[in-house]
Design brief:
GO terms for molecular function: 4 iron, 4 sulfur cluster binding; catalytic activity; cobalamin binding; metal ion binding. By secondary structure, the protein is an alpha/beta fold. The chain has 20 helices and 22 strands.
């Protein structure tokens, strides 16, 4: 049986890491093809070369793979380079949007990577499962790029999967789910693939096609039921455009209500695809949040980036969300082609009129985007190909009107009231004058950062044997963990106790001492790390 290891590369907390959906689809494709699949998750577990060596040596995989976006590409590629040294005979693959659109450079700079799975991966991986060791046959597998000597072979583009209901559900059972539930971010699903729009800064259309292919509401509801049974209560629908079909949105909502499924869910939509009836129906089925990519408050800019919306449509969508009672968020991009102080001020004026939550992000010209491939046609200068900087949190472009430093300064200036309000809320918490909302916001953020430290540094595993009784063990563990996380012992104990009460952390006592560990994980003395029980 083919042994496969898939690796979830580290991802920053600021990006709200949730169970890696694409990698779980890849794992399910391998399992469907009869492979034995392991998923090494370094998003919510500590990564080190030593741990990687232990885990790969214990499995001895035939295939090692990962999927990544531009922001964590460098780290993912470094892990695959380490994996090559550990498993010199394994086939090493990379997939995801970055690798799919930066094939030649990726294979040139990272010789450890044998091949790239281009675009939609499931059918390609199923074919590779039986043929991975027959490299002479790779040229016949659509959707692959691989090195042959000093040249790169690009096989024909693979057709998109038309019936998404034929896909197995993502193999989330391979993940350390208790850790994700403790972290508290929504779990993502897709109800369809494809984006009919042509925004010059986005990869959606190129990655999954312009024709929207949709899963049946029944199949999606089956997956939601499975997630609720796993203990997740908040779901993010990660479609590029959930509201592409009004008729299908209504069908989805009817299926949710028919089954009596109760959960909170969020979506991405466009301001020209919503109306009051649609939003109200979504809200009644549990939708709590809608995110709109508005990008700019300047009409000419919207035309330049091929956004396909108007200012009036943005204002109408925001007003409808406020009327219906759905939380709405507007995303703006700073540093678009031809950006000036005046166009940025128009964006500020628009977000003020919308009266909904918003955020400014920096333009990141990802490989494969029109804006990157045709940059000479736009008023833009690119200042970095350091992929670690492509997190949309800093300016890496300039225009003829604004330097990158000026774009950075604008975003910082606009965000200043948000930071000041946050500092004031923290000060009220410290002085004992906080409102309930203050406490929920500040303590929730503090709890999230503490839990992320426990996860990413595997700190529960570092604890020495503790007193046998749970109460004493909690107190002793909190004293140790507080020193490792720069937290107070009281808050650490409160948080750890809550994790135990929720069942995400368990306590095992044996012969007078006890240990904490994440649910469904047990000590594995043979290889010195924790693994899934059973």
């Amino acid at each position: 049986m083919t042994r496969v290891v898939l690796i979830a590369a580290p991802y920053p907390l600021d990006e709200c890491p949730s169970p890696p959906l694409g990698l779980c689809y890849a794992a399910a494709a391998f399992e469907t093809a009869g492979a034995e699949v392991h998923l090494l998750d370094y998003i919510v577990r500590e990564y080190s070369p030593e741990k990687l060596r232990e885990e790969l040596t214990a499995i001895s995989p035939d295939i090692i793979g990962t999927s990544c976006v531009t922001m964590n590409f460098t780290g993912a590629a470094a892990i695959l380079t380490e994996a090559r040294a550990i498993c010199p005979d394994a086939v090493i693959l990379m997939g995801g949007p970055h690798a799919s659109f930066d094939i030649d450079d990726t294979l040139a700079h990272y010789p450890a990577i044998d091949g790239i799975v281009v675009g939609e991966a499931e059918e390609t991986l199923k074919e590779l499962t039986d043929l991975f060791h027959q490299r002479e046959t790779w040229k016949n597998i659509a959707g692959l790029a691989f090195r042959r000597g000093s040249t790169v072979v690009h096989t024909p583009k693979r057709d998109f999967i038309q019936d998404l209901d034929t896909l197995p559900l993502p193999a989330r059972h391979l993940l350390p789910l208790a850790r994700y539930k403790a972290l508290g971010f929504p779990v993502s699903i897709i109800t369809g693939r494809g984006c009919p729009n042509r925004c010059i800064f986005c990869l959606g259309r190129k990655m999954v096609g312009f024709h929207v292919r949709q899963r049946s509401p029944q199949r999606v509801a089956d997956e939601i039921e499975s997630l609720l049974a796993m203990g997740f209560a908040t779901i993010n629908i990660a479609d590029d455009l959930f509201t592409a079909s009004r008729k299908r949105v209504f069908a989805f909502c009817r299926e949710i209500k028919k089954r009596g499924l109760v959960f909170n869910w969020s979506v991405f939509a466009r301001v020209n695809t919503v109306d009051e009836e649609l939003l109200r129906t979504m809200m009644e089925a549990g939708c709590t949040s809608v995110s709109f990519g508005i990008e700019s408050g300047n009409t000419e800019m919207l035309k330049r980036v091929r956004k396909g919306i108007s200012i009036a449509q943005a204002e109408n969508a925001a007003a409808l969300c406020r009327k219906v009672g759905i939380r709405a968020h507007a995303s703006f991009i700073a540093g678009l082609p031809g950006e000036s102080r005046e166009t940025l001020e128009e964006s500020v004026a628009l977000k003020n009129r919308l009266k909904i939550e918003y955020g400014f992000h920096h333009l990141a010209p990802f490989p494969g985007t029109t804006v990157r491939e045709q940059m000479a046609d736009y008023d833009l200068t690119l200042h970095s190909n350091d992929w670690d900087l492509y997190d949309a949190d800093q300016a890496i472009v300039s225009t003829s009107h604004l330097t990158s430093a000026e774009i950075d300064a604008f975003v910082r200036e606009d965000a200043l009231p948000i930071h000041q309000a946050w500092d004031a809320a923290r000060a009220r918490c410290e002085s004992g004058t906080a409102t309930k909302d203050d406490e929920l916001m500040v303590l929730g953020n503090r709890r999230m950062h503490l839990i992320f430290k426990l996860l990413r540094r595997d700190l529960l595993d570092t604890l020495s044997p503790l007193p046998e009784g749970l109460k004493k063990a909690l107190h002793s563990a909190a004293e140790i963990l507080a020193g490792l996380t720069d937290e107070t012992p009281d808050f650490t104990e409160f948080t750890l106790k809550d994790l135990v009460e929720r069942g995400w952390v368990t306590f095992h006592a044996d012969q007078g001492t006890g240990r904490f560990h994440w649910a469904e994980e047990t000590p594995c003395p043979e290889i010195g790390h924790r693994k899934k029980a059973g």
